[in-house]
Structures are given as structure tokens and as C-alpha cells.
Write a structure and sequence with these properties.
- Helix content is 87%, strand content 0%.
- It has 54 residues and is mainly α.
- It has one domain.
- Helix 1 (2-27) crosses helix 2 (33-53).
């Protein structure tokens, strides 16, 4: 279970970095590292809860 949780966190970080990169390139939005780090925990938590329900 712990290995799966770490995997989810790593995938979440990759997804959020990609999302921020797209915001920067396509929308010329500024990327704030605080926002990036702030999104990792809630998104990972939701994915883990969702997986636990299945």
C-alpha cells in the first residue's frame, strides 16, 4: 500500500508540473511554486481515496 501511495504522489507531481507548463506556454500565466506544491497533497489524497473505493 505504501508503494502505491508513493507512486500516486509521483504521478500527481508530474501531472501538476505538466499542467503548470501548459498554463505558462498556452495561456502565458505565471507559475507559482506555492500553488504547485499546494495542489500535490489534496490531489494525491483524492486519487488514493478514489482507488480505495474501487
Amino acid at each position: 500500500m505504501k508503494k502505491k501511495a508513493v507512486h500516486v504522489v509521483v504521478l500527481t507531481i508530474c501531472l501538476i508540473i505538466l499542467k503548470c507548463q501548459n498554463d505558462l506556454i498556452l495561456s502565458s500565466k505565471r507559475v507559482h511554486i506555492e500553488r504547485l506544491l499546494g495542489e500535490v497533497q489534496p490531489t494525491s489524497f483524492l486519487w488514493i481515496i478514489h482507488q480505495a473505493e474501487q
